[in-house]
Design a protein that fits this description.
Layout: H1 4-34, H2 48-101, E1 103-104, H3 108-116, H4 121-141, E2 144-158, E3 161-173, E4 181-192, E5 198-203
Antiparallel strand pairs: 1-2, 2-3, 3-4, 4-5
Helix pairs in contact: 3-4
Length: 212
């Protein structure tokens, strides 16, 4: 037989037991809420569109920079090639003009060979035709001359054809002027880079010789 006192005691014990169990459950729930659940993915807000746009902009910038570098190198290469061609034209024209102005009446064959050196077929034929007339003038005069380069400049270039003005200081002696004389002569030399830098035309030779 259960007395009232025992009933009250049991009731109190049950109440405490339920209260303690509930408190423990609440604490476990709170701790679980603070801990991330295992196996759950943590989402980080990343803008895929933003990363894609940034990557595309970077690639575009790199491509533009590469194109600019290639274009700059191409321009420099073209400029260097043009400068080298111009220098070659001036040097070749100068060498020809010096040879054409260096004359010794006792060895006109060597001089005529210099006149024809590096010239086109048409110009070579022209010098072959005029050589006898030149000998008739230079031998009686006992003409000798030598030349010193002063300057050379490309005056024009058209599709690989260069026209160069060459300035020489020419010293000469002859039967009429045994003490010699000096004059400045200008040659107009045309060279064709497309034909192995052949000389296609020459003007000013008469300035270095006693031609009437």
């Amino acid at each position: 037989m259960i007395t009232s006192t025992e009933t009250e005691t049991n009731s109190d014990t049950d109440t405490e037991t339920r209260s303690g169990a509930g408190g423990s459950a609440d604490r476990r729930t709170a701790r679980a809420a603070r801990r991330p659940a295992r196996g759950r993915a943590v989402s980080i807000p990343i803008s895929v569109a933003g990363w894609t746009a940034a990557g595309a902009a970077l690639i575009a910038a790199v491509c533009v920079l590469a194109w600019l570098l290639i274009a700059a190198r191409g321009e420099l290469a073209d400029r260097d090639a043009a400068a080298a061609a111009q220098q070659h034209a001036e040097q070749a024209a100068t060498e020809y003009a010096v040879g054409a102005s260096t004359i010794d009446y006792t060895d006109l064959d060597a001089w005529i060979a210099k006149l024809k050196a590096g010239t086109s077929g048409q110009l070579t034929t022209k010098f072959d035709a005029t050589a006898p007339k030149l000998e008739d003038i230079l031998v009686p005069l006992q003409w000798k001359s030598s030349a010193t380069p002063v300057a050379a400049k490309v005056m024009s270039e058209d599709d690989g054809v260069y026209r160069v003005d060459v300035f020489l200081s020419v010293s000469s002696t002859s039967a009429q002027t045994p003490d010699g004389g000096q004059t400045t002569v200008t040659y107009n030399v045309t060279l064709d880079a497309n034909d192995g830098w052949k000389i296609t035309d020459v003007g000013g030779i008469d300035g270095a010789m006693p031609l009437k």
